[in-house]
Amino acid sequence: MSNSTGFCHPKFNKVRDAFFQQMKRYPGGGAVSVYHQGEAVVDLCTGTRNWNGDPWLPETLSVSFSTTKGVVSALLHQQAAKGLVNYDAPVAEYWPEFAANGKQNITVRDLLTHRAGMFRMDTLGLSFNEITDWDRVCAALAAAPADNSSAPHSVYHALTYGWLVGEVASRVSGQNISDLTKTSLAEPLGLDGLFLGTPDSEHHRVADLLMGSKPGSNTRSKPNSAKKKNSLKKEIQKGVRGAFDKLIHSGVIPDITRFEKSVAVKSFHAQKLTTPEVLRAAMPGFSGVFTARSLARLYAALANGGALDGVSILPAETANLLSERQVFTLDRALYTPMRWRLGYHQPFVWGLRRPERGFGHFGYGGSGAWADPDRQLAVALTVNAGDGTPWGDARILRVGGAALRSC
User: Fold this and answer.
1) Which domain, by its residues, includes 137?
2) Rounded to whole angstroms, how far apart are CA atoms 47 and 41?
3) DSSP, residue by residue, 18-59
4) Residue 401 sits in a domain of what CATH number?
């Protein structure tokens, strides 16, 4: 592709080929980064980063939606490793106000596995402008009752997850979540592209989200090839329909209203996530800003027992916990076998068995990052155009499958 730069180890040419092929199907651009056995083996970017058509650069940052959840989860695990958090302790032990409205028995493990019943945004009554205020959202969550109608099953906390987990990490560490990300992850690993709340000095690096109409015009972002886009969309829809048909035949009737309630925010639009005032805000369930390279380095450390290049961000015993499956039933918002770990799901890949001990998080729009400790493999993809599903689309699935085939 034009505007392409970077490197790829010959052993991982399948990743390169999958990346370029998949990126042709969408407008905009993106980057992929892969680490294997602690070494960078793929670092590629292609396409355009904004409405003006400027090329994607290695240092380009991108809003990565729910991929963010994997980063805030790592911050909480660091606090647990220090003995500041017990996964099975009530959340209210660290956040006393959270006990209101009968929530005194909800545990930290419940938060990490989407079983707290705190997924609803519709009952909080907050507008998009209001959810940029961390304290306001956390106060609303603390005062709200849990929705236990789907207990004991998980119900994906699409937006609330970041505030819930982040507030616990912030309270026990004594740092706000933006500073904690910087001091606990970015600085130790030498990451220049990992932000939960992006400082003004880095805003110029952030890619436009090419979703919907260009601001100030009626021009919509169009796929590079309508035929290819439709083909990709049909692939996804076919898979979703097939999964739902199987559920219906098995007696489980999918109910999408839970997911709708989990993302109900007045005046929300993805393009607002790249405005200066919103970039400054930390909303770690869905608005983290990353480079693929920084995500891959983080997950490379997690795939290697918590350490990379001689720097440990987690003790091995804690890093090993991240592979352990916690939930054995279908999520009641996504109706997908997420196989939740502590803050992560098992990675989805195209055409292969999912890595048994793999863990990571994908995001709406196509981004994603994950680790496979058995192969010491880490894969990260950032993009700025796409739709797909709440857990990514075929791009991250195909790139991940190519990485597994290369090991």
Assistant:
1) 1-212+228-407
2) 20
3) HHHHHHTTSSSEEEEEEEETTEEEEEEEEEBSSTT-PBP-TT
4) 3.40.710.10
In a domain, 219, yes or no: no
Give the whole-angstrom CA distance, residue 147 versus residue 157. Answer: 11
379 belongs to a structural domain:
yes
Reply yes or no on whether 178 is catalytic.
Answer: no
Calpha distance 389→386 (Å, rounded): 10
Amino acid at 57: L
Q: How far apart are the first and last CA of the chain?
A: 25
Q: One of 33, 62, 64, 66 is an active-site residue; which one?
A: 66
Q: What is the pLDDT of residues 373-385, one digit of tens each?
A: 999 999 999 999 9
Cβ-Cβ contacts under 8 Å for 83 (sequence gap 6 or more): none
The type of residue at 357 is R
Angle (nearest 5°) at CA 139 between 136 and 143: 140
pLDDT exceeds cutoff 80 at 219: no
Torsion angles phi and psi, residue 21, rounded to 5: -65, -45
In angstroms, the CA 226 to CA 232 distance is 10
Query: How many structural domains compose the chain?
Result: 1
With respect to residue 166, please indicate whether it lies within any of the assigned structural domains.
Answer: yes
Asked, for residue 236, whether it belongs to a domain, the answer is yes
Q: 265 Cβ partners below 8 Å, 6+ apart?
A: 121, 126, 127, 128, 131, 159
| Closest-CA residue to 20 (of 39, 3, 37) | 3
Query: What does the mean pLDDT of the chain come to?
Result: 91
